[in-house]
Amino acid sequence: MPPNHNLLIMNENFHEIRMEDYDINPITGFLPPMPPLRTLPDEYYEPWEFIIENFHELLLAGRFRTSVDNMPLLNVDHLKTPAEYHRAFLVLSFLSHGYVWGNVNDISDRIPASIAIPWVKVSDYLGVAPIANHAAVVLWNWRLIFPDEPFSLNNLSTLLTFTNTFDESWFYLVTTAIEGHGGSALSSIISAVNASNVGNNNQLLKALKGISSIIESINLTLQRMYEKCDPYVFYWKVRPYLAGWENEDRLPDGLIYEGVDGNDEYGNPIYRKYIGGSAGQSALIQALDVILQIEHFSTSFIKPKVNKVDEVNVDKINKDNGVNKVNGVNGSNKVNGVNKVNGCNNSGVQSSREYNKAPQVNICSYMNNNNNNNNNNNNNNNNNLKCPFNNMNNKQKPYLYKIRENMPGPHRRFLEDLSKIANIRNYIISNIGYDSSEDEEIDNLIKAYNECLAQMKNFRNIHLQIVSVYIVIQENRSKTALPIKKEIITKNYTTEPIKITKPPVMDSIKGTGGTNLIPFLKQMRDETVAQEIPNKY
Predict the structure, then answer these.
(1) C-alpha angle with apex 373: 367 to 375, nearest 5 degrees?
(2) Which residues bind heme b (predicted)?
């Protein structure tokens, strides 16, 4: 008699995850439970706060760098709480990026010791790289307009911006609002992984439906980016400040953190290289990938085999009910004016078992030389696979793994631990056809899982479209072109194709994180679709 099939899914690395162990709040998710500090309470840090308070005026007057150069070197020992460290990191990030990028005609390849030394120390405390990142501008850069009202996009304001524009604030706040779904998303994620590891199908089904619903809400929030963020302003005014100093043509050697590293053996200053801020640094979005076992590889390493994927039409945006919609999910229907995404089988993807032949490589586990045993009959050969990333240098590692260096330490650790026990897809596949009395139950799990994939695919289509409008098109426009007004976005981008004057440039346009944007985002979308479980397995 075969063993109870519930035992097939037991993972030797399994342990129940608790949010509080990873600086995660059950309500706010990766956001802090209370709004971030608006100033540092200790007057000792007044020199930092003075320059931040006069940030835009000093840039306008051409006195920003001089003011930073004349600033005293302050010790970080006066910072007492995590909230104070968050504020310090935000302030020092803005001081540093303002110093480097604030004068477009004179980019600095160094930051003075007055900001470099405390920035590195604060970064070490938080377990994050010293670079302006997603955590700084999104997680720790918001306040409630009306403190007695709930957290929502319509009740948020930013603490700091580089350009003092509504467009920059909106760009950050849309993402902050997405992170606001983190509490409920992570609760469902943890419920799902616990259910799959103890064989509770009812709990797993409920959790998957919850995850799908949350991703749909995230998609609706992301589509609001067009409302108050002008593509011209974003690309030419805001985006330059978010660049890092790795894979950056204007800083090919990186950046000198004065007073931190000294000189090399030849007496030359040591340069540091860090990837700039990007949406990929959201631990929430990466957690959704992890729980669904969506693996992302370097663009030059592996591409999933997909028979047919409906492409995002880079040249077209649909307008529906006043909100820009994205084409690219076939078979969707509208409910109350909102696109409801069907399962991947209706999306134009021809399912085949070929998807399931791809190794279920757990990147994090391999990176740490700690392979996971999936313990299911369909993937026995995986246990003998050697990690394809073990001998790679830092540049060759999968991008989404590498940018976890830009996440707060506890959040990065959460993703690493979650990846060791996430086995929902493997669990469902291992139980297909095992017990005929549970066929309907497993079919429902397949549908719920595929619906999550469809929503993630829709998320990536929307992201692709935003990148096309805000970066690709702007890259191919003249720098002297007039700003694109809101009414142009909402009225004219309907069915007429957007003309891109230099299509070959599209594949070489880089994001602030240094990736070739369009190929990278398309591959992420394709890797998402490739994980679909065929309904008729």
Answers:
(1) 155
(2) 463
CATH number of the CATH domain containing 326: 1.20.58.480
Q: Is residue 506 classed as helix, strand or coil in its secondary structure? A: helix
What is the distance between the alpha carbons of residues 235 and 226, in angstroms, rounded to a whole number? 13
Interatomic CA distance for residues 449 and 502, integer angstroms: 39
323-325/318-320 β-pairing: antiparallel
Q: Please, what's the b/e burial string for 325-354 (b: 16 or more CB within 10 A of its CB; e: otherwise)?
A: bbbbbeebeeeeebbebbbbbebbbebeee
- Tokens encoding 37: 């500090």
**C-alpha R_g of the chain:** 24
pLDDT per position as a tens digit, 439-490: 889 999 999 999 999 999 999 999 999 999 999 999 888 554 555 555 544 4
Sequence-ordered list of residues with C-beta below 8 angstroms from that of 25, at least 6 positions apart, any chain: 19, 31, 32, 33, 183
Strand locations in 242-317, DSSP E? Answer: 255-257, 271-272
pTM exceeds 0.85: no
Phi, psi (5° rounding) for residue 248?
-115, 115
State the residue range of the domain holding 145.
1-11+21-537
pLDDT digits (tens, 9 = 90+) for 289-338: 999 999 876 655 444 444 333 334 444 433 333 333 333 333 334 333 33
- Examine residue 380 and state whether it is found in any structural domain, yes or no: yes
* Residue 296, marked binder: no
Length reported for the chain: 537
Amino acid symbol at 451: E
- Beta bridge partner(s), residue 142: 158
Under DSSP, is residue 159 helix (H, G, I), strand (E, B) or coil?
coil
Residue 110 lies in a domain: yes
Quick one: tokens of 143? Answer: 């306040």
Alpha helices by DSSP H, 370-487: 399-402, 409-421, 424-431, 439-467, 473-475, 486-487
Which amino acid is present at 425?
R
Q: How many domains does the chain have?
A: 1
